[in-house]
């Protein structure tokens, strides 16, 4: 069996990148200044840096099954805190995608072991929107969009995100990646400035 690094053609990639962008690796070795925090699905068909047409160092990344944002999840919370407060990213993206296995599982009723508690927020969205899902032309896409919007809502309930939105114009986006076309589509997830400020004020008033 060939060694993993040989199978992945790392040397060829590193050599080619060095030739095409001579300063890239030297710059990366000094630190990172990503513009974007990307919260996406672990699916191998959705490599964020590639589909955005960007390069190493441009995107700070958190990925999990079905791009779920659990309010109490320490892993995602730590990533968000670090990216927003310390790296000072200018954009936070929640991205779902078509043909998502996690969404398909959430639409089903099979027991999936450890995936069951993980997908619980998505299954709750399914139950809360059962009527519209039953009449939707594409229930999986509809649930994918609902899940992204729920992730954006969860982000905007975090004080670190709200403060950055108010103080320096941090932008939060919800996207859908179409696996069949390679195209990204931005969802309308707008919320009035008054609603955001009211939520921020509630955080500041907490003892």
What are the defining features of this structure?
207 residues; alpha/beta; Beta-carbonic Anhydrase, Chain A; 12 helices; 50% helix
CATH class: Alpha Beta
Q: Please tally the helical runs, counting DSSP H or I stretches of 4 or more residues.
A: 12
Proportion of residues in helical segments: 40-55%
How would you classify the quaternary structure? single chain
Identify the CATH homologous superfamily.
Carbonic anhydrase
The number of E-state strands comes to: 5
Structural class: alpha/beta
Q: What kind of sheet is the major sheet?
A: 5 strands, mixed
Low-confidence stretches: none
Based on CA atoms alone, the radius of gyration comes out at 19 Å
Question: Strand portion, in percent?
Answer: 5-15%
Mean pLDDT: 92
- For the termini, the CA-CA separation is 60 Å
CATH topology: Beta-carbonic Anhydrase, Chain A
The number of domains is 1
EC number: 4.2.1.1
Family: Belongs to the beta-class carbonic anhydrase family.
Protein name: Carbonic anhydrase
Pfam family, one: Pro_CA
